[in-house]
TrEMBL record, chain A:
It catalyses: n isopentenyl diphosphate + (2E,6E)-farnesyl diphosphate = a di-trans,poly-cis-polyprenyl diphosphate + n diphosphate. With NUS1, forms the dehydrodolichyl diphosphate synthase (DDS) complex, an essential component of the dolichol monophosphate (Dol-P) biosynthetic machinery. Adds multiple copies of isopentenyl pyrophosphate (IPP) to farnesyl pyrophosphate (FPP) to produce dehydrodolichyl diphosphate (Dedol-PP), a precursor of dolichol which is utilized as a sugar carrier in protein glycosylation in the endoplasmic reticulum (ER). This is Alkyl transferase. Keywords: Endoplasmic reticulum, Magnesium, Membrane, Transferase. The lineage of its organism: Eukaryota, Metazoa, Ecdysozoa, Arthropoda, Crustacea. Belongs to the UPP synthase family. It comes from Cherax quadricarinatus (Australian red claw crayfish).
Automatic annotation (TrEMBL), chain B:
InterPro entries: Nus1/NgBR, UPP_synth-like, UPP_synth-like_sf. It is found in: Endoplasmic reticulum membrane. Belongs to the UPP synthase family. The lineage of its organism: Eukaryota, Metazoa, Ecdysozoa, Arthropoda, Crustacea. This is ditrans,polycis-polyprenyl diphosphate synthase [(2E,6E)-farnesyldiphosphate specific]. It comes from Cherax quadricarinatus.
Length: 324, 258
């Protein structure tokens, strides 16, 4: 089963697609693929068959998203909490991941043709050695593609992500690259695993659960939440159309709320700049002082983020070069 | 040039128009229903007695400990209704309530909320908390109307958090600021000890009141396992809606990743 599925649309699907594309379409879709095991139980198959079907559904959804014009998809594949499942199931899932990543590397040219960039968010160190190597290779192989992005959350929880971002920052402060006053919401956000991608606009969870279950807690603040009862392997293009239609109805309110949040964030940074200058120069603070402080801060942050990026790249190269 | 494009544009607007029309028809029916209820309650007082709330709560398998109410846009102005919802929650035995709106309207309306809680006919003591930039709480203790000073059992202590945008992501950023100065390894429990809601359980149920179904950046760290529900507006939020949500919550089975 390949990563790039190409399907023909029926005329009804095609018409609905064209109609939805008139309005705003989410740039970034986040999916919690829930219900694979319940589906398998319903069909009297073992859990792993359900997960395989779930993966096939994901590749299909990617095809639908390409047609709709959604160019970034983040899927919750495996949570850190999922390691608590039975050894048999975890091993099965890991084998499935290994098989799919191997397939992905085989299909490198095809992915390049479609411009698909694969990123993995999560704590890769928790994964078994062979999966780690394959993930590193897959990320490095597709990292120059820029047309559509697929972020796979593997060994991911949002709390872990926030925690490790804070550790990066604290290390930056300890090494003198950053000052404590440089830390802001924006900088913390740029240290998350999802750095470089936009916040999801629409978050879909299947199978009727109405929780986020530690998925993109920070990033989904202004996402439109869409919970549907259908099990993930039974998710159809019409469910996706429904979700997008729902998103379109609330597009303006959510965009306005997000803008407001960004404006507030900007205000806080400016305030903190002024406060820092006050403690440094006393009452004789001029506009130049503040300007100089802000540009110095920006430079420090830029350098820090560049170094972080370099470190991550080096880490990926290292894990993909290890021998089995 | 795509000749079919105008056709699809037309269909797009028709589809959204029909959806809006259908929703407004439903809204009108709800409003009429609400009006009738109002008229009815004019003759027969329908404030739900505490014993009924307790009886309803006793039927549920589990009751949340912490309820979050996210008010979208103008909903934060309906403080009288908010205090009614709080009194239901207290009747169900919910000990922690977080009221949230992104703009901080609720924080500004703190005196009004305090007054509304004071007038409520519950027998609980409310600790109303809100937080400034340095996360230090501002606390007011308010007792409900029907509190008995001479009863043997101490009154229930209810914590009410008034939260706004800064208490979510901003709080995490300021926690990062404080923790980075210590230089030690940052763990999840360390982060938790710097949050505004430290010592409180995480919200079990979050009800978004208002139109878009979104968390609006409500306490990103704490909503990990919260169940999300939506209600279209506070003025139409009836006791039966509240009961339905809590019933749904009590039926939910959490697997914690397993």
């Amino acid at each position: 089963m390949t990563w790039i599925v190409e399907q023909d649309r029926t005329w009804a699907e095609w018409a609905a697609l064209r109609i939805l594309r008139v309005g705003p379409v989410p740039n970034h879709l986040a999916i919690i693929m829930d219900g694979n095991r319940r589906f398998a139980r319903k069909e009297h198959k073992d859990a792993l068959a359900g997960h395989t079907r779930g993966f096939h559904k994901l590749t299909e959804v990617l095809c639908w998203c390409r047609d709709l014009g959604i160019n970034e998809v983040t899927a919750y594949a495996f949570s850190i909490e999922n390691f608590k499942r039975s050894k048999q199931e975890v091993d099965g899932l890991m084998d499935l991941a290994a098989e799919k990543f191997a397939k992905l590397l085989e299909e490198k040219e095809k992915l390049e043709k479609h411009g698909v960039c694969i990123r993995v968010i999560g704590d890769l160190n928790l994964l078994p050695q062979r999966i780690k190597k394959l993930t590193g290779e897959a990320i490095l192989a597709t990292r120059h593609n820029t047309k559509c992005f697929l972020n796979l959350a593997l060994a991911y929880t949002s709390r872990d992500e926030i925690c490790s971002a804070m550790n990066e920052l604290s290390q930056g402060v300890a090494e003198g690259q950053l000052m404590t006053s440089d830390i802001s919401e924006e900088l913390l956000e740029k240290c998350l695993h999802t750095r470089g991608s936009r916040d999801p606009d629409l978050l879909v969870r299947t199978s009727g659960e109405v929780r986020l279950s530690d998925f993109l807690l920070w990033q989904s603040g202004f996402s439109c939440l869409f919970f549907t009862k259908v099990l993930w392997p039974e998710f159809t293009i019409w469910h996706l159309f429904g979700a997008v239609f729902y998103y379109q109805r609330h597009y303006h309110t959510l965009t306005a709320a997000r803008q407001e949040c960004l404006a507030l964030r900007q205000c806080m940074v400016e305030e903190s700049d002024i406060e820092c200058c006050h403690t440094k120069y006393g009452d004789k603070v001029s506009q130049e002082h503040i300007g100089a402080h802000a540009s110095a801060r920006k430079e420090r942050i830029e350098n820090f983020l560049a170094k972080l990026h370099e470190q991550k790249l080096y880490y990926l190269q290292q894990i993909s070069n290890t021998s089995d | 040039m795509d000749i079919l494009l105008p056709v699809f544009q037309l269909l797009y607007f028709v589809a959204h128009f029909l959806a809006s029309l259908a929703l407004s028809v439903i809204d009108t029916f709800h409003d009429l229903h609400h009006l009738l209820l109002r008229l009815y309650s004019f003759f027969v007082p329908t404030a739900i007695p505490a014993c009924r709330l307790q009886a309803d709560a006793a039927q549920l398998k589990k009751v949340p400990q912490h309820l979050g109410l996210v008010c979208v846009g103008q909903q934060a102005q309906h403080i009288a209704q908010l205090s009614t919802v709080i009194s239901w929650a207290v009747g169900y035995g919910i000990r922690f309530i977080s009221l949230y709106d992104a703009h901080g309207t609720l924080k500004h309306n703190r005196p009004v909320i305090l007054k509304a809680l004071q007038k409520s006919s519950s027998d609980a003591v409310y600790n109303v908390l809100s937080y400034d930039h340095s996360c230090s709480p501002e606390r007011d203790v308010i007792a409900g109307m029907s509190i008995k000073t001479d009863s043997d059992s101490p009154p229930q202590n209810i914590t009410v958090n008034l939260l706004s945008l800064e208490d979510g992501r901003g709080n995490l950023a300021s926690a990062a600021k404080i923790l980075s100065t210590t230089g030690c390894k940052i763990t999840m429990s360390l982060i938790e000890s710097h949050l505004v809601t430290r010592g409180q359980p995480d919200p079990d149920v979050v009800i978004t009141i208002g139109d878009p179904f979104a968390s609006l950046a409500f306490l990103p760290w704490q909503i990990r396992l919260s169940e999300f529900f939506v209600a279209p507006s506070l003025s139409r939020f009836e006791y039966s809606d509240f009961q339905t949500i809590l019933k749904k919550y009590s039926r939910c089975e959490q697997r914690f990743g397993k």
